């Protein structure tokens, strides 16, 4: 699918139909209006100012990560441009090795983070898309109430559930394992995921599903071969959000893995790399950039879905 | 191929107390092209969807051939449906769209390919097989939707207003193509439309529905010549039949001009002193003064070959439409139309007068 809209609805009645054409024109013109107002000169200027303001601290951090401890303590990061000969990779070197003296090399935490994040993204996607299909297209008693209940669960802050959940995980014997993290991330993600995907599924013209049913498709086949391909943008954007959230999560990891540092994700390592007395804090910026690298790569590769999914949610949801 | 039978099939939507389709009794012969027609909300689409299995049947039965399909799921009915909005799968190519049902049925790949290619050839879609629906024009999408149905060689074709999204010219072309394709394939077809011209031109038989109740099933010719009731009389034909309320006397209806329409005595007895006389605009001919019904001309539509005269009759009364009496319409020769504001006289051609009971709507003459 290469169209700008997520659903090049075939149902999208023949271009000849006058009403539809008028509707299309209307949509296009409001999109156009938004596009023109955003690309006007003032608009661009505001955007540039915002972009500079937002990225400057990050950029400073990036520069800092290449400076020596002494330089960081002495002067601000912008001075580094006058001292190009003093730039160094030693912070990265040390951060990779877990902060010098004892510890586990950062690579291990990296792998932990990936092991945690991948199932914690795919599990909620799978469950939520199945649930969303049922909520959107299968009639069963109590459906609407159940859906409201699922939606309402978003109100519950995860901090409330954290400790009871951790205790319970310990009792059933998966405390401190990856399972504890996968399950809790999945559980916390589900309400939003179900709601989001449900809205997308609901947007698909019912006649498409009816056509599939008359063609002989079962629920499973309709789900896999008709619906899933059509909600790829929604899946992708939720997937990215969830990945970023899990990758950057410290609170859940700390609570669930408190006692088993061997499973710790990279955020926990970041938290500790400056040492118990904070004597290696100059490593923080380097370590942070190592940690950021993966989300950046994921984001760059999937951003075309991301943007498209968001726009679609904006105009259709 | 098979027959289709609705046996007192009824559909009541939850929350409604009136049925949307009320005890539909209808038999469709093997290979027949039956058109369901009626105004919007008359239950024609619901009937079709009941046959497809997309709508629950609350009462009665539906048979395809000798199978009772009343509660069967759509996938087991062996029917193919063409939707009003085509409902093509946007992420699949034309070939995949057409082959989807066969793929589900487990037909092997090479056979799917030949069958899709054959159907594509019939519908002139061969060069578009690798395209996605969004790269097709409206007419091509419509043909893909048709192709998806014929590839399957199902027992019954169901078509739900498949032409309503095409422009006028293409609609007329495609209308003929679908009708001839259906005759060639000989597959039993149920076709839903709100357009009575489509109904009259395409169907072997036409079934007219109103408010969920079947009004009449007949060949287009019989439907036109012998409408069974007031609703069918007013619905079939364009421009519509003139329907005038006139009082009755002992032997029937007598117009001031001397035109007399006899009505059987026992039928007269049931009437409330009034009947509705119907004459189609094309069954009226000009008459000499005082020999026909006087009509004051209000508008003349000149179409070249013919002209339609719209006016007010000086005798009897027509039904109201949006608070205004419906005009009396007559077809006259296109080269010598009457002048606006003048009074002209029309008399019906013999044997082309229909008489109805205004209370029940039933036809009184044969």
Care to count the β-strands of chain A? Answer: 0
Structure classification of chain A: mainly alpha
Low-confidence stretches of chain B: none
Oligomer: heterodimer
What general outline of chain B do the C-alpha atoms trace? elongated
Q: Tell me, rounded to a whole number, the average pLDDT of chain B.
A: 89
How far is the N terminus from the C terminus of chain A? 20 Å
Total separate domains of chain A: 2
Q: Give the helix level of chain B as a range of percent.
A: 10-25%
- Strand portion of chain B: 25-35%
Sheet with most strands: strand arrangement of chain B? 6-7-8-3-9-10
Outline:
The complex is a heterodimer of chains A (317) and B (366). Chain A has 317 residues and is mostly helical.
Q: What do these coordinates show?
A:
The complex is a heterodimer of chains A (about 325) and B (about 375). In chain A, helix 11 (about 230-245) packs antiparallel against helix 14. Chain A has helices at about 20-40, 40-65, 70-75, 90-95, 105-135, 145-150, 160-170, 180-205, 205-215, 220-230, 230-245, 250-255, 265-270, 285-315. By secondary structure, chain A is mainly α. Chain A starts with 17 loop residues before the first helix and ends with a helix. Chain A has 14 helices and no strands. Chain A folds into 2 domains: about 45-90, no CATH class; about 105-310, MetI-like fold (Orthogonal Bundle), CATH 1.10.3720. The radius of gyration of chain A is 24 Å and the shape is globular. With about 375 residues, chain B is an alpha+beta fold. Helix content of chain B is about 25%, strand content about 30%. Chain B is built from 9 helices and 23 strands. Chain B has helices spanning about 45-50, 95-105, 110-120, 140-150, 170-185, 195-200, 220-225, 230-235, 265-270; strands spanning about 5-10, 20-30, 35, 60-65, 65-70, 80, 155-160, 190-195, 205-210, 215-220, 240-245, 250-255, 260, 275-280, 285, 295-300, 305-315, 315-320, 320, 325, 330-335, 345-350, 355. Chain B has a 6-stranded mixed sheet with strand order 6-7-8-3-9-10, sandwiched between helices. A 5-stranded antiparallel sheet of chain B has the order 15-22-16-17-21, with no helix packed on it. In chain B, strand 19 (about 320) and strand 20 form a beta hairpin. In chain B, helix 2 crosses helix 3 and helix 2 (about 95-105) runs parallel beside helix 4. The interface of A and B includes residues 14, 213, 214 and 225 of A.
């Amino acid at each position: 699918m290469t169209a700008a809209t997520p659903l090049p609805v075939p149902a999208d009645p023949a271009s000849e139909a006058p009403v539809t054409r008028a509707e299309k024109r209307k949509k296009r013109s409001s999109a156009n209006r938004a596009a023109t107002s955003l690309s006007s000169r003032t608009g661009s200027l505001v955007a540039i100012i915002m972009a500079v303001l937002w990225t400057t601290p990050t950029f400073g951090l990036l520069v800092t990560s290449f400076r020596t401890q002494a330089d960081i303590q002495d002067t601000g990061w912008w001075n580094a441009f006058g001292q190009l000969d003093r730039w160094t990779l030693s912070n990265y070197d040390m951060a990779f090795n877990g902060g010098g003296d004892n510890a586990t090399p950062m690579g291990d935490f990296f792998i932990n983070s990936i092991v945690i994040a991948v199932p914690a993204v795919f599990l909620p996607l799978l469950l939520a898309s199945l649930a969303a299909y049922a909520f959107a297209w299968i009639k069963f008693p109590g459906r609407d109430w159940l859906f409201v209940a699922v939606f309402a669960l978003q109100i519950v802050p995860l901090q409330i559930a954290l400790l009871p959940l951790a205790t319970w995980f310990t009792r059933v014997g998966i405390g401190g394992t990856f399972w504890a993290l996968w399950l809790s991330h999945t559980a916390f993600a589900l309400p939003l995921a179900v709601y989001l995907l449900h809205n997308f599924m609901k947007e698909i013209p019912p006649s498409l599903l009816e056509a599939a049913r008359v063609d002989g498709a079962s629920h499973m086949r309709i789900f896999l071969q008709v619906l899933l391909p059509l909600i790829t943008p929604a899946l992708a954007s939720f997937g990215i959000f969830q990945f970023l959230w899990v990758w950057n999560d410290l609170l859940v990891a700390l609570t669930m893995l408190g006692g088993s540092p061997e499973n710790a994700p990279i955020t926990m390592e970041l938290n500790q790399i400056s040492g118990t007395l904070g004597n290696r804090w100059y490593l923080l910026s380097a370590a942070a950039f190592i940690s950021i690298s993966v989300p950046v790569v994921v984001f760059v590769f999937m951003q075309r879905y991301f943007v498209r999914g968001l726009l679609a949610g904006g105009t259709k949801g | 191929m098979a027959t289709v039978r609705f046996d007192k099939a009824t559909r009541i939507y939850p929350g409604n107390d009136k049925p949307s389709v009320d005890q539909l009794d209808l038999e469709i012969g093997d290979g027949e092209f039956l058109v369901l027609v009626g105004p919007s909300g008359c239950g024609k689409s619901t009937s079709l969807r009941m046959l497809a299995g997309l709508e629950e049947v609350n009462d009665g039965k539906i048979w395809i051939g000798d199978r009772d399909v009343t509660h069967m799921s759509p996938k087991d009915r062996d029917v193919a449906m063409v939707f009003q909005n085509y409902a093509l799968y946007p992420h699949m190519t034309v070939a995949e769209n057409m082959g989807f049902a066969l793929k589900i049925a487990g037909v092997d790949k090479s056979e799917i390919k030949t069958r899709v290619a054959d159907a594509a050839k019939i519908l002139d879609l061969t060069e578009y097989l690798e395209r996605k629906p969004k790269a097709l024009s409206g007419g091509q999408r419509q043909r893909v939707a048709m192709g998806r149905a014929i590839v399957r060689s199902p027992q019954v074709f169901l078509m739900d207003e498949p032409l309503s999204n095409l422009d006028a010219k293409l609609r007329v072309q495609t209308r003929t193509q679908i009708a001839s394709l259906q005759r060639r394939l000989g597959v039993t077809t149920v076709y839903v439309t709100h357009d009575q011209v489509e109904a009259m031109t395409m169907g072997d038989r036409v079934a007219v529905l109103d408010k969920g109740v079947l009004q009449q099933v007949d060949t287009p010719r019989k439907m036109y010549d012998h409408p069974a009731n007031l609703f069918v009389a007013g619905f079939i034909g364009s421009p519509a039949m003139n329907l005038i309320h006139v009082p009755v006397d002992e032997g029937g209806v007598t117009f001031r001009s001397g035109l007399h329409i006899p009505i059987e005595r026992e039928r007269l007895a049931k009437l409330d002193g009034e009947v509705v006389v119907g004459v189609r605009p094309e069954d009226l001919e000009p008459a000499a003064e005082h020999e026909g019904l006087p009509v004051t001309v209000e508008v003349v539509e000149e179409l070249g070959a013919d002209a339609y005269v719209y006016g007010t009759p000086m005798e009897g009364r027509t039904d109201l439409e949006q608070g205004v009496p419906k005009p009396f319409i007559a077809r006259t020769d296109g080269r010598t139309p009457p002048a606006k504001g003048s009074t002209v006289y029309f008399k019906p051609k013999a044997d082309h007068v229909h008489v109805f009971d205004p209370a029940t709507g039933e036809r009184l003459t044969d």
